[in-house]
Write a structure and sequence with these properties.
Layout: E1 18-21, H1 22-32, E2 37-40, H2 47-58, E3 63-66, H3 70-84, E4 88-92, H4 96-99, H5 102-110, E5 115-121, H6 137-141, E6 147-150, H7 157-169, E7 175-181, H8 182-186, E8 188-191, H9 212-224, E9 228-232, H10 234-238, H11 242-252, E10 256-258, E11 273-276, H12 283-291, E12 294-298, H13 304-307, E13 318-323, E14 337-340, H14 343-356, H15 367-379, H16 393-403, E15 408-411, H17 415-423, E16 431-432, H18 443-453, E17 459-464, H19 465-468, H20 475-481, E18 486-491, H21 496-505, H22 522-528, E19 532-536, H23 539-551, E20 556-561, E21 571-572, E22 581-582, E23 596-598, E24 605-607
Length: 620
């Protein structure tokens, strides 16, 4: 709803009001909420705010990062938030400035990222008249924000900012929009600061503590399960529940698979880690979810890229679903034990109750299950191809993982994203990728935001030649502000994932997916922005070039030319179950097989594979 006054938010006691402008109230409120960096681009309607920002920068209170496109500002604020868990902030002016933010806002909404977006707007009297650079950004963004405000009075600014930060960062996080008419920024009011602890919003009370009865029911299922599996999503990252996930997994000896958003929520070097599941997940993760008898979903939403054919996803399993958002629990899969609450707090309750009941009673009961998974892991490993005439993309990922194991990695979207997810071993918050919306052009500005947030950490963007061309102008931002981001382009000359689908499902009709014509010289492009450019064309250059990239004190862009038609496997085809992957290594002779049966669909006599006919995929 459009907010004009917020009477339920209290103001700080014993503070006398001062005559200040709406723009001052905004900037001062941002500072009071811990904001140190703002990503943005000025314009006419937001100039009063930028004028006040100028004063704050001069005093050393804030730093504004001038991006080259407003979409870059939104993605940078998003990357900043993912790397730190804090609220990211971006600015854009009215009209095209605001609409250029829309893709970044939608990206944050899909992945539940806390952001506050401030847009300029035409004056109050001009709203609705089709004034110059007027757009209804409030209406445009309604489906893709957690909440929105149009500031009608300067006196409400402090309360609105306090509420925006509270809403963005509590419950299921998300982006909040504040639209500020130009004359509100100039208008004077009696300004009284509102601190974050003063916010009271009747009707907005996220459930954080799990129901005790459901906690007991969940423990009963865990204790009696023989083939449990933890399925961990981005909610565990948002809740900072890494330690609790690990304790639960190790205490009950439960294997762990994560979604693309959940990467880093569990130590991927741990023997219980199965990596990512889903369309391009590991074979052993997908086999495990198909064979488990208990699925413990932790901050995950049963996304279609994870589940494949939904009615055959974990079809043998009972389900425990833990999530902060009640709308997600039961949305795609009805759980036997639903638990609404903050993931970290709920897991702490589960662990505390387990200690009280002296559980688990038998830590060895999952050993047969873990041994079965170990055989799948041995029989169906992720493959790193070695071609005589070209570098494989997987080789690049392995070398990056070797030389920069503790870096923060951002990615764009496509094959390179999936290879990075498969081969990099990430720590908490060190994997930053657009998962829900799948936004090309996300990687570079997100890396920029992450590096501004954590300047002493290595930040590496993994991009594709097609994705990189969506937002290459942000090289100028890196150069301008000296932001030491390393970017490596996995250059196969294609929109790689599009080409793979066209090869597999569209009769090799490669419609508008080849990017060779018009492709820039990325090394020269980088140099034109004042950024170091490099090219890798031969395997013999790979290790030394990555070492040189990492050693350089400044931003670097590396053009890694890889095999042009490499496909990303394993892959679950559309409409198939997770057990029906294509691109797996040829089945080893030692793979366990059950009795031969005749398939009712194709008539072939075959051994059952995970309850499906290996010839036609029919469920048996």
């Amino acid at each position: 709803m459009v907010s004009t006054s917020i009477p339920n938010t209290t103001i700080s006691a014993n503070i006398l009001p001062q005559r200040r402008t709406g723009a001052f109230a905004l900037i001062d409120s941002l500072k009071r909420h811990g904001v140190k960096h703002i990503f943005g681009y000025p314009g006419g309607a937001i100039l009063p705010i930028y004028d006040e920002l100028y004063r704050a920068e001069a005093q050393g209170d804030l730093q504004h990062i001038l991006v080259r496109h407003e979409q870059g500002a939104a993605h940078a604020a998003d990357g900043y938030a993912r790397a730190t868990g804090k609220v990211g902030v971006c600015f854009g002016t009215s009209g095209p400035g605001a609409t250029n933010l829309v893709t970044g806002i939608a990206t944050a909404q899909m992945d539940s990222i806390p952001m506050v977006i401030v847009t300029g707007q035409v004056t109050r009297g001009a709203i609705g008249t089709d004034a110059f650079q007027e757009t209804d950004i409030y209406g445009i963004t309604l489906p893709i924000v957690k909440h929105s405000y149009v500031v009608r009075n300067a006196k409400d600014m402090a309360k609105i900012v306090a509420e925006a930060f509270y809403i963005a960062s509590t419950g299921r996080p998300g982006p909040v929009l504040i639209d500020v008419p130009k004359d509100v920024g100039l208008e004077e009011c009696d300004y009284i600061p509102v601190e974050s602890g003063d916010v009271k919003l009747p009707g907005y009370r996220p459930t954080v503590k799990g129901n005790c009865g459901q906690i007991n029911a969940a423990l009963e299922l865990i204790e009696t399960s023989q083939r449990p599996l933890l399925y961990v999503g981005g909610g565990a990252i948002a809740a900072n529940a890494h330690a609790q996930v690990q304790e639960l997994a190790e205490s009950f000896q439960i294997p762990v698979t994560t979604t693309l958003m959940g990467l880093g929520a569990f130590d991927e070097h741990n023997s219980l880690s199965l990596g990512m599941l889903g369309m391009h997940g590991t074979a052993y993760a997908n086999f495990s979810v198909s064979e488990c008898d208990l699925l413990i979903a932790v901050g995950a939403r049963f996304d279609d890229r994870v589940t494949g054919k939904l009615d055959e996803f974990a079809s043998r399993a009972k389900v425990i679903h833990i999530d902060i958002d009640p709308a997600e629990v039961g949305k795609n899969r009805t759980p036997q034990v639903p638990i609404v609450g903050d993931v970290r707090q709920v897991l702490e309750q589960v662990l505390q109750r387990a200690r009280e009941l002296d559980l688990p009673s038998d830590r060895s009961k999952t050993q047969e299950w873990l041994q079965r998974i170990a055989r799948w892991r041995e029989d169906y490993p992720l493959i790193v191809p070695h071609h005589a005439d070209s570098i494989s993309p997987q080789e690049v990922m392995v070398e990056l993982a070797k030389q920069a194991p503790n870096a923060y990695y951002t990615t764009d979207v496509g094959q390179h994203q999936m290879w990075a997810a498969q081969f990099l071993k990430n720590g908490p918050r060190r994997w930053i990728s657009s998962a829900g919306l799948g936004t090309m052009g996300y990687g570079l500005p997100a890396a920029m935001g992450a590096k501004v947030a954590i300047p002493d950490e290595e930040v590496i963007c993994i991009s594709g030649d097609a994705s990189f061309q969506m937002n290459p102008q942000e090289l100028g931002t890196l150069s301008h502000h000296g932001i030491n981001v390393k970017t490596i382009i996995i250059n196969n000359g294609w929109q790689g994932m599009v080409r793979q689908w066209q090869q597999a499902f569209f009769g090799e009709r490669y419609s508008s997916s080849n990017m060779q014509a018009g492709m820039p010289d990325f090394e020269l492009l980088a140099r034109s922005f004042g950024v170091k450019g490099m090219v890798i064309e031969d395997r013999s250059q790979l290790a030394d070039s990555i070492a040189e990239m990492l050693a350089h004190n400044g931003p670097v862009l590396v053009d890694a030319k890889v095999k042009k038609d490499e496909n990303c496997y394993p892959m679950v085809a559309p409409g198939k179950s997770n057990a029906q992957m294509i691109g797996l290594p040829e089945k080893p002779h030692k793979q366990e097989l059950t009795e031969l049966i005749i398939c009712s669909n194709c008539g072939q006599s075959n051994a059952i594979e995970n309850n499906f006919c290996p010839e036609c995929g029919t469920k048996l």
